[in-house]
Each structure stands twice: as structure tokens, then as C-alpha cells.
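Researcher: I'd like a structural prediction for the single chain below. Treat it as a standalone chain; there are no partners to consider.
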Amino acid sequence: MIRVLHIIPGKLYGGVESAMVTLARFRHCCSAMITEAAVCWRGRLSEELEAAGIAVHVVGAVRARNPLTVWSARRRLHEVLKRNRFDAVICHMPWVLAVFGPAIRAANTQLVFRAHGVSNPRHWIERWARMTPPDLILAVSRFVASDIARLHPGVPLKVVYNPVPPAEALTAAQRAAMRARLNTPADAIVIAQAGRMQSGKGQQILLAALAQLRDNPRWQCWQIGGAQTPREAAYLDELKQQATRLRIGERVHFLGPRTGVPRLLAASDIYCQPNDTFAEGMGIGLVEAMHAGLPIITTAIGAAPEVLGNDGGFLLPPRDSESVAQVLRKMIGDPAARIAQSARARLHAKRFAPELVIPDLASTLAPPLAAPATGRSLECAAQTPITHPVPGPG
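Model: Treating it as a single chain, here is the predicted structure.
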């Protein structure tokens, strides 16, 4: 039996948080691993984790520019680690490693860094995080592993995918009812994209491609996801204005943040996410769409080629709306091609099933790991000076 504590900020909700909730909900896939979580902010993540039945420890909000908040959160984590014996503490993302790594190290507990995306070695948070080397790195893909290994030479590294459960099958009546609620005709070909409203994830490219298909009345588009920051809100406004300017605004539905994304995908026909600059560390939305049996149209950057394999979807050049439009036109007009691509997508998605991934995670974390470095007392770690190159947000 191993006991693992995951630390995630909890302020925003995206792929990292979705993966954590899946891990909590499907923890029965490995009864030998007890999963708990620590968050800085209460919100959607903490609510969903508690609803899934795992313990959630709240260590308090942190502002990196305010050392007192860091010391206070480390002190609360110290109390959590003192009351509970964990075999490993997993820091999700560099910010968490920077803030809490010293306290975990001082507790003489296995310190694990969960790498979800590519690094930015010059960013002050990542430079701060590297001041506390972990005992083990878990990368969400081979793509991320090849990048992160350069920053932590000599640290053991293992690729463990995020778990993504299969989509729930919908009956014809359920599918029609969901479309009716979203003002979408039952016989429309729905092109879906899911994720946070982040520039670089290709929403603008998709809208430009759809404008080239304006003459085809069969399609509708669902943009699933909402803005969580002022920057994302401004970007969402730009997308709505772009859709109106391209004269496709009535056929593009911005659905906002949703909790039932797999069901929405199951009611769709095609998934299109033509990232232009954002390199997915794994791409949970891609895998959810594959589980739903949707033909996948994306770009050959980040981990997408690894996730889709040789024939799990269409890998196009970035920033090429004409190529996106060409593939969309074929998929819209060719039901047989959609069915064939659906079968291949489902096959590739099986690699990410919780019953495979969660036991793999448990076996990777099971003792004996490399002995953690000897640390100072937790009391001392809680007061470690906060040193990073420049001040920044959060």
C-alpha cells in the first residue's frame, strides 16, 4: 500500500485539473494506492475531488510576490505532512515545485515533479523551481520527457500518461435532446473543439477554415470552454467578433465552461483543434475526442503525433486554414470516411484508459525509490527565503 499526495494550485481548471479528477474517480483501478490532494485555492477542482471521495487539504492562497503567503502555505503543508505519512508527494507544474519543493524536501519525503508541458528555462518560475531538484520526474508524454530531461540531468524520469476514461455512449434520443438544448439541428455535422480559451490553441484558425465552408449548410461548430482570466476573456471576445465578421456567427456556438465535456463530444461528429503555437504536453481533449470516436483534425506540433499515432487522426501543418478546410470538407461530406476514422481513433485511445495508466503510476511510485536528499526541519523550510529573478503574477 502506498499513499500519495498531489499538490495542484486549484485556482484555474484545465487539463491538469481534469486529469487529477479522473485519477480520483478511477482510483479503484489500483486499490494499492491511496490518493489525496492539497490545493491552495478552493474552487471547482476541490469540489470535484471531494465529490469523488478523496481527502483534500487546503494550504492557503499563495502570491509569489508576497513571501508571507508562501511561508504560510508551506507551514500549513508542514502540518499536513506531520499528521500523515506519504510515500510520495507529487508537485504538478513548476510553480508548485518552486513554492512547496523545499518543504517537501525538508520532510524527507519522496519529492516527485509531474511535468505536464514543455519548459521555458528563462522564466523566473522555472528557474526558481530548479533550485529544488526532485527525486523523480513523471512526464505526461515522450514529447515532454525529451524536453524536461535537459533541465534536470541525472534525475530519474518516467513517462506516465494522464488517465482519460472512455466516453459515455449516447442513445439517439439523448443525442437529439442535447443538440436541441444547444440550438443545433439533429442532422447537423457538429465540429467540436474543447479547451480553455487560450491563444495558440487554434480557435482562430478553425474559424478561418469554417469561413471557407460557408457555402456548406450542413455544419455547426461547438466551442466548448470558457475564459478564466482577463486575457482569456479578451481573446474570447476577439473570437466572437471574428465569427461575426466572417459571417458564420450564427453557426458557431460558444458554450462556455462545461462539466460534461465527454457527453458533448459524444454528441458531436468531428473534432478539430488546429493548434498554431501552443504545443500540447499530452492533449486530454484530443484523447477524449478519440474515445468518443470522432475523426481528429489537429496540427503536427507538441505531443499530438505521439497521441494520434500513425493513423489516429489528421496531422496538418500549423497556421494552415486552407488545409483544415480541405479535410473538414471531406469529413463532412463522407460518412464512410468518418466511420473508418472513428474506429482508428478509438483504438489509439485505449492506451490512455485509467485501468492501464493508474496501475502504471502506482508501480512507478512504489518503494523503493531513490532515497530523498536529507533536508532541514520543516520549521526551517517554511521560512526559507523566497529568491527568484524578477517579480511576477501569482
